[in-house]
Here is the input.
Amino acid sequence: MQRLKMPNNTNKMNANGAATTVLKPANNNLAAIAGTLASMRFLESQNLKAYLGKDYNKSVVAFSETCNAARNISSEVRKKHALQSLLKAVAEGDEEFAKKIVTSRPELILVSAGTATDLSGREINGLTPLQAAICAGDVDMVSMITAVLQQKLEDRKTLCFDPGIEIHRQVAAIYPDGIDAVDAQQQTKAQEFNNSVLLNILNIINAATEQQVEFELNNPRENNPDSPLNVSLHNFRAQFTTTSNEETIFNPYYLLAALEFYSDQYGADNDTWNRADLFWRQIVGYVQRYLPACYLQAQADDDFPIRETLTRRVFSVEHNPHAQLRLVDGDLDDLGYRWAYNTCGGITRGPRPGGSLEPQTDNSLRINTTRFRNLILTKKSALENLSSLAEAATSSRLSLGQ
Here is the structure.
């Protein structure tokens, strides 16, 4: 981008013959900005916002590169833009980009003024980037941030805070009564979800006619107010969306409950194939829509089972390249409508591992929930270890008077 030339001062004779200094703008753009800055504070300038266009943050960043004065004036806006970018990277599981921002601006993990939207449409606000990763169960992101901050300790001038103290403080703010207490509460809520919501929708599916079930399988997004099944499925989606969006800390036990409930109810009865198929796609699958990015990435890894630690930050499923566990124009494709992800590996349109649409015998509808349970336990254990390490480091430095 070509730099704007700074104004030149020129002397001009006034009517009395005295010399006066006149500001001569190098171009109209800089003159317009200078006039705006003279009349009101930069960050609160509605005129400047209109002048710079719809993408205000990016425009200010570009403007700040024109000269040192502009850089200084726009520093707060540039900080806000960096914070928004970091929160977005955390919410979308973009660990590589998040690392670049944390490395260059580690102080941003102290700030909770940003907002972002995760892949499910859930709004993130009132959380620091580190807390957003903690609440999503993204222990890989938390580990990365922790590692970057620990490296910064070698140069005290680069940090205005103690990483150990700050990490411990932020974890404690999310879990004031401890991680185990929140985990127990989440399991209780999941059990209530199992006993009320899942049981209710199961009864409605089983009471529906075969024609109604086939309509939902073939027309998953259409409204049919004359069908109790259609109305109930729409209500289930609205209810679970509200439940998910109201919780700050992601609750993985909802999906575990749905997986186990499905396996218990449909594991050995192939006479209810279409009903099992409907429950799998539109109940289990819809709960999967609200998984944070790190959980989706764990399921999309092409090493067959759900990964307990991430080896790749991807959303595409290698053995089914048409299935993307990824937002497409604000929607998660057909996940929760036409298909769900199988914990034994693979995208399945029907309920049986491997995606076959033909009924089988010998408990073929049963699924393996162990891997997903292990993923939950692994993440919980990793978060506890990170919290303990931060607390130990804090105690050590305080005892040494550092």
Observations:
- The first strand starts at residue 8 and ends at 13.
- The chain has a mean pLDDT of 76.
- The chain has three domains: 8-73, 88-177, 179-289+335-368.
- Residues 179-289+335-368 form one domain.
